[in-house]
Amino acid sequence: MASYRGPVSRDSIIRRVELGTAELVPDPYRPGGWTVLVDGVAQSYVNVRRPAHLEFEYVRRVAAVVAACPSGPLRVLHLGGGGMTIPRYIAHVHPGAQQLVVERDSKLLALVLGVLPLPDGAGVRAEAGDARSAVEGAADGSYDLVIGDVYRGALMERSTASTEFVSEVARVLAPGGFYAVNVTDLPPLAFSRAHAATLLTEFRDVALLSEPGMMRGKRFGNLVFAAAAAEHGLPAKKLSHFLAADKVPGRLVRGTGLAGFIGDAEPQADASF
After folding, report:
1. Are 26 and 18 in contact (CB under 8 A)?
2. pLDDT bracket for residue 5 (50, 70, 90)
3. Could you tell me the CA-to-CA distances from 210 to 37, 77, 115, 239 in Å, in that order?
4. How confident is the model over 239-260, as a mean pLDDT?
5. 20 to 30 A Cα–Cα from 209, which one of 41, 57, 194, 243?
6. How many domains does the chain have?
7. CB-based burial of residue 265 (10 Å sphere; 0-12 exposed, 13-18 middle, 19+ buried)?
8. Inside any domain, residue 41
9. Pick from 108, 116, 96: which is nearest to 45 by CA?
10. Is residue 217 very low, low, confident or very high in pLDDT (cuts 50, 70, 90)?
11. Quick one: which of 25, 88, 84, 78 has its CA closest to 51?
12. Is 11 part of any domain?
């Protein structure tokens, strides 16, 4: 079992980072719990003592995709690091997984790893860099799972939202691999509808994972997409089971349901942004 080495402080920590002001706030009710904010926007919740504790709803949606992966070691590429919540979780539930985390903000990365260090033996390599460049530089079929969570504040980086980028993600996935991406949006979910159409340009099976109110465009929030290259490549029953069992039950929308969600939205190429 990997051993935990920190954190070094239980006081709130505020630092200027490359993309704003980061704040690490300890949870007064849970020893080992921390919230990571950048410019006041909560980016991550981390429980360094209990890596299986996933506070944010959208992170649990991503974890449902992780749970649907085959058992045994995984090769995982994380685009966006934040507090390293999901890498910690995967290291806990998939011992032996080999993970690479690419985080654009080198100062945020250093702060998180300094205050909330990864467990010894976690099998996680973290580096500062550009998400799109990392994908474009990866070898064909080199990952079983790619997780996209690349944001500047509350906005998804458009360089990771285009058809050209999605094509590169599909290329680096091994046969049977999955792509999971977190999207934040507000009513009427125009960006999410277009991104679903964008994913379908390269992936034959795409599903939307969220709670029904969010999918109806009732509020600002997060939606998670899961994608597989093969038709019926996603384990829909397993994903639906995990979504239904969540404390905020969610739904899996794919096929004709997803087509209805997309409506007349069009895929977005680099030139669209």
Report:
1. no
2. very low
3. 23, 22, 32, 11
4. 95
5. 41
6. 1
7. middle
8. no
9. 116
10. confident
11. 88
12. no
